[in-house]
Amino acid sequence: MRYRRREFLKTSLAAGIIGPLSTAFGQDPQAVNADEDALIKAASTPVLHLEDVTAPVIIESIELLKSGRLFLVRTRSKEGTVGLSVPNEKVRFLYPLLLQQVIPFFIGKDARDLESLLDGVYVHESNYKMQGLPFWCCVAWVELSILDLLGKTVRKHVSALFGGKVRDKIPIYVASGNRETTPEEEVKVLQKRIAETGARAIKFKVGGRMSRNMDSIPNRSEGLIELSRKILGDAITIQADANGSYDVPKAIEIGKRLEAIKAYLFEEPCPFDYLDDTKRVADALDIPISGGEQESSEYRFAWMIRNNAVQIVQPDVHYYGGFVRATRVARMAASANLQITAHISSGNTGFADMANFFSFTSNMGRFQELKSGVDKTGPLFDPPIVVKDGFLNVPAGHGLGMTHGEDLLKNAKLVKECPNQDRE
C-alpha cells in the first residue's frame, strides 16, 4: 500500500482535521512568515533518489543485536545484503516497542518503498496512538538500517540516496553539558575542549533544565554569559541552551544578556511544548531561537516554521524518526529560508548519523554538536571519523559508512529478553 502524503496533508487541512497552520495555537494569521502551500509541498515531495535500485530489495529479516555495550539493528535482504544501524541508549527501555510494533511491519516489504513505509508504520495497528519520541526512535533505527542496506545494494554512500553530497566535513562546536560548574570552572572546561578539537564555537547550559526559572546554582547563568565572552574572546561563537528553563519574561531577560555578548543562538528558552511562549520570546529578541529536539510532529514543526517561533530548526535524527522525516523538516525550513541543526541523542555513533545527514542537507546551520564517542567508534567507519581543526569528516563507505563491524557482529547476541538484565 502506498501512502500519499501530499493528498493526506491537503485533505486534512481542508477537512479541518489539523486546521490551518496559520491559526493553530490561537495565532493571528497575519503573523504567518511562510507560505502554507510551500510547506506542504516541501514536506510531501519525494525525498529518496532510488533510480539505481533497479530490482526489488525485499526485507527478509530485521533483528536487534547486542554486542558488548552496543546495540545493533541488522536488516537483511533476500539477496543476503546486510544493513546496520546503531540505536541510541534508550533502546534499553524501548526494545519491546521496536520488536513488537515496528519491525514486523517492514518484514517482506520492498525497501525501495521506504518513504511510504515510514508513513504506513505510523498507522499500522494504530501505532499513531503511541506517537512521540519512543515510537519514532524505533522507526529511526529501522529506517537507518534500511538506508544502510540500500546504500550497500548500490555500493554508494547514503548521500547518493538523497541527491548526492554537498559537503565532506562538518564544522563542530563543543559543549560540556554541565550545570553544576561555576562560571569559572565551566569556561575552563570549554577552553580545554577548544584546545583539544580546534573548535571555533561552544555551547553552555543556562537555567536549571525545565526548572521554572530556577538556576542550577544561584546567578550562575548570568555570570557565565558575561564571563564566557570576556575569557574566550570575540573569535569564538557562543551558544546557550536553556533546556526549557524559563517563562517568557525570564527568557527574554536571559536572551537580552546573550544579545549583549553577541551570542549566535538561544536554544529552547521555554519548555519545549510551550510553543506560544517560545514564539513570544522569539518576537521579543533579535538573537535566533533554536528548538525542536523533543519534537516528533511534522505539523508542529510546520507551525514553528510558519509562525517564526524558531529561526534555527533543530530535529533529532533518532527522536524524530530518521533521515527521511528529518529531510522533510529541513525542506520546510529551507522554504522559509531557515537553517537546520541536529540535536544528537546518541553517544554511540550519533556523531556519524549527524555527519551523514549533513553530507546531503544544504541548509545546515553554522556549527553542529561534537558528541562523545568519536574516539571509540569512529574507527568503525571508512575512512575513520576523526576530529581535526574544528571539523568532523563524513565517511565515504557504502551506506552509512560503517565498514569495520565484523568484530561487533561476531560477538553479537540476538536480543529477545530485557537487555536491562544484561549489564556488560
Descriptive key words:
TIM Barrel, alpha/beta, Enolase-like, domain 1, 4-stranded antiparallel beta sheet, 14 helices, 10-stranded mixed beta sheet, 424 residues, 14 strands
Question: What is the element layout, followed by pairings?
Answer:
Layout: H1 5-15, H2 36-44, E1 59-67, E2 70-77, E3 82-85, H3 91-106, H4 114-123, H5 133-154, E4 169-175, H6 183-197, E5 201-205, H7 220-232, E6 237-241, H8 248-260, E7 265-267, H9 275-284, E8 289-291, H10 298-306, E9 312-313, H11 323-335, E10 339-340, H12 350-360, E11 368-369, H13 374-377, E12 387-388, E13 391-393, H14 406-410, E14 413-414
Parallel strand pairs: 4-5, 4-11, 5-6, 6-7, 7-8, 8-9, 9-10
Antiparallel strand pairs: 1-2, 1-14, 2-3, 4-13, 12-13
Helix pairs in contact: 1-2, 2-11, 3-5, 6-7, 8-9, 10-11
Tell me what you see in this structure.
With 424 residues, the chain is an alpha/beta fold. It has 2 domains: 115 residues, Enolase-like, N-terminal domain (Enolase-like, domain 1, 2-Layer Sandwich), CATH 3.30.390.10; 233 residues, TIM Barrel, CATH 3.20.20.120. The strands form 2 sheets. Strands 4, 5, 6, 7, 8, 9, 10, 11, 12 and 13 form a 10-stranded mixed beta sheet that branches. α7 links the parallel β5 and β6. The longest helix is centred in the middle third of the chain and has 22 residues.
Helix-strand category: alpha/beta
**Overall number of structural domains:** 2
Q: How confident is the prediction overall: mean pLDDT?
A: 92
- How much of the polypeptide forms β-strand, as a percent range? 5-15%
Determine Rg (CA atoms, Å): 21 Å
Total strand count, please?
A: 14
Taking the alpha carbons of the first and last residues, their distance comes to 42 Å
- Biggest pleated sheet: 10 strands, mixed
- Weakly predicted, low-confidence segments: 8-32
Shape: globular
What is the name of the CATH superfamily of the largest domain?
Enolase-like C-terminal domain
| Overall CATH class of the largest domain | Alpha Beta
Percent helix range: 25-40%
CATH topology of the largest domain: TIM Barrel
Query: Total helix count?
Result: 14
CATH architecture descriptor text of the largest domain: Alpha-Beta Barrel
Task: List the secondary-structure elements in sequence, H or E.
Answer: HHEEEHHHEHEHEHEHEHEHEHEHEEHE
